Amino acid sequence: MTILARSTGRKAASAPAVPNWPRPDEPERFVASKEQLLDMYRQMVLIRRFEERAGQLYGMGQIGGFCHLYIGQEAVVVGMQAELVRGDSIITGYRDHGHMLACGIDAKAVMAELTGRAAGISRGKGGSMHMFSVEHGFFGGHGIVAAQVPLGAGLGFAHKYKNDGHIAVTYFGDGAANQGQVYEAFNMAELWKLPVIFVIENNQYAMGTSVNRASSEDQLYRRGESFRVPGLQVDGMDVLAVRGAAKTAIEWVRAGNGPLLMEMKTYRYRGHSMSDPAKYRSREEVQAMREKSDPIEGLKNEILDGGFADEAALKAIDRAVRDEVAESADFALEAPEPALSELHTDVLLGTY
Amino acid sequence: MPQILLPAMSPTMEEGTLAKWLVAVGDVVKPGDVIAEIETDKATMELEADDGGTVTALLVAAGSDGVKVGTPIIVIAGEDEAAAPAPAPAPEVAPAAVAAPAPVSAPAAAPAPVQVAVTAPETASGPTRRQTVREALRDAMAEEMRADGAVFVMGEEVAEYQGAYKVTQGLLDEFGPARVIDTPITEYGFAGLGTGAAMGGLKPIVEFMTFNFAMQAIDHIINSAAKTLYMSGGQMRCPIVFRGPNGAASRVAAQHSQNYGPWYASVPGLVVIAPYDAADAKGLLKAAIRSPDPVVFLENELLYGQSFDVPEGEHVVPIGKARIMRAGHHVTLVSYSIGVGVALQAAATLAAEGIEAEVIDLRTLRPLDKATVLASLKKTNRLVVVEEGWPTCSIASEIMAICMEDGFDDLDAPVLRVTNVDVPLPYAANLEKAALVKADDVVTAARRVCYR
User: Fold this and answer.
1) Where are the domains of chain A?
2) Residue A145 in 3-state DSSP?
């Protein structure tokens, strides 16, 4: 997919070499069954409603600190996760609620972590940015921008070392893509042919700085080229495009070809975090994206137009999701806070 | 000047192995010809002839180890002297028999570790063997790698180069490249990758060429490794060892000479270990590798080549237990890592004056063995902390605070600290010497707290 600058006219330097290292075939948009379509629809709606509710609870003072919502980006994680299998590892940054739901983690445990309760998945000690579920292959939930990139390469390393056939997926944003450690990880991952997919969720804004104000190469899928990590650019607002690309990428990486970079072109509707006034972009820009490119509306229309299900069936899913989210919020508000004795536990495992 | 002396080929080299002669008696050499291969504490180096001439004698046999820097090793008669008979060279002798003149080029500015008879109550009574700290560390890794397939070692030059300081020597041959992994020069990246591998169920040993370079990686040590267990509500483990030399080496100046003990020891979620002798280096590194927690294991370059008695067979030292290196009842000297040698040297001087100092090696900086320190204070009522590091916000500061909080009634004098001077470490030999912790200053401080 890479387009290289062409040498025109007389130049002192020779024309850039066309990369001849292997790369996967051009991915195709996923052709989904009715069940697959409805499941992806349900998952995206779950993330959307969950995040809206989290935003409300934040506004009510029930969620503290930083809270980064995933609204608008749902297709990315839902499309990717649909092609992973149990035993694969995933890791992401602090905008992690959607990833956890897409891993199949109980919404109640996530919401209760947001409200800082003992029933939270980190027993109330992690909060929005620091959640983990080893059981679900979800390794966080990391608060330092781009730290998850070498960590994710390390998860891939562990799979290769154990020779268990599994892969790691590390998600990070367009902002994180400018951190140096990302490239240290690319280098080692390719050098050692680690089974890891680097997924850049390019939602166009690193906090308040747009990609082209922060990135000299703003076509982020090319960022692996100097490490020979092939890149794919994917419409991250189309869950079927994501899933098709995921299928190609996962097959490629699982086959032992080494790492792959995927740039998901996506968009977040909300601010960077709950405390972001979002003055760096116009309301019209956000509205236009919602109206023309919303991943949930897009899939909904595809389901209806294709005759896979009718309005009533989708409404039933919507209702079930609303109930699930309402239940998680009630649970998260009623659950007790951690016992004070929890302050001192989980610092070290060993006794010395 | 026909004799060539064994040169110092690294800042810390005190002796070397004459691995191989590439010339024989009677050979004519030109300037720049390689005449021998010398194994130093870090690498195998080629020794070149500075001047041309005829080799008239080889004074040290090939394969000799422990040849002191400055020992005459070969006689090359200049062209004018070529015809003259060799100046009655001794027959090739074992290095032990060679009288070592004063080193010609290796400055010994840093605190020299001093070996003093240890009267530790817990000294193993079984058979021991003499080993360098470097060998003890290597054995610890090799034994744990044999015992557990999840243990692997990664870092710069750990495999094919056999370790920048030869600590991983031989591991590649035994365990292969899948478990002994050379990394690019990418500390932040490989510290993160190692931490991720630990989260994924492995037990990495991440070697930093020195802890100075780990500052590039400190985010992963603290934010990714140390906090994971807590942030995950006890769900996610991170059993990893970050190890490498720490503290001042010799004449490498400010950016390569810093003690990070106090930095890491301030972080909950980490275990921090800083051994002094070879037995502890081995026993504590084995314990560190077995620990389910992230461990920062601070070694010392100047101690790598020092030899100590190490118990034969399985030897694991408990984490978090200080060791009484020398019993005494007049004053307590508390230290760790290379400072223990300084404290022992001071204790020997004090003993000659009738002051019996008790020397405590903390061994583990976090969790700190307060009980052993306070018990000794209860006995001696006087305490001096000896630290090869800066004074401000140091382990010494911490020990002083502990004595104030928990040992106030036992104090007959203020606790004093003897540390490096509060400046970046200078390069010039005299300034470096002046900046580093010294036994004489420990003696002075001990006299002061004893009111002598």
Assistant:
1) 70-107+134-313
2) coil
> What ipTM does the predicted assembly reach?
0.92
Measured in angstroms, the CA of A227 and the nearest CA of chain B are apart by 13
CA distance A104 to A282: 35
The CATH code of domain B3-82 reads 2.40.50.100
Q: Which chain B residue has the Cα nearest residue A187?
A: B184
CATH topology of domain B129-311: Rossmann fold (3.40.50)
Following DSSP, what letter does each residue of A184-206 receive, concatenated? HHHHHHHHTT--EEEEEEE-SEE
Nearest-by-Cβ selection for A350 from B201, B236, B293:
B293
Q: Specify the CATH architecture of the domain A70-107+134-313.
A: 3-Layer(aba) Sandwich (3.40)
- CATH topology agreement for domains B3-82 and B129-311: no
Amino acid type, A311: E
> Is residue B231 within 8 angstroms of chain A, CB to CB?
yes
Walk along chain B (452 residues) and give the pLDDT tens digit of each residue: 578 888 887 777 888 899 999 999 999 988 878 899 888 877 778 888 888 889 999 999 999 988 998 899 999 987 655 444 444 444 444 444 334 444 334 434 444 444 433 334 455 578 999 999 999 999 999 999 999 999 999 999 999 999 999 999 999 999 999 999 999 999 999 999 999 999 999 999 999 999 999 999 999 999 999 999 999 999 999 999 999 999 999 999 999 999 999 999 999 999 999 999 999 999 999 999 999 999 999 999 999 999 999 999 999 999 999 999 999 999 999 999 999 999 999 999 999 999 999 999 999 999 999 999 999 999 999 999 999 999 999 999 999 999 999 999 999 999 999 999 999 999 999 999 999 999 999 999 999 999 99
- Please give the CATH number for the structural domain made up of B323-449: 3.40.50.920
Where do the structural domains in chain B lie, given as residue ranges? Answer: 3-82, 129-311, 323-449
From the CA of B259, how many Å to the nearest CA of chain A? 23
- The structure tokens listed for A94 are 């602090």
b (16+ CB within 10 A) / e for A220-254? bbbbbbebbbbbbbbbbbbbbbbbbbbbbbbebbb
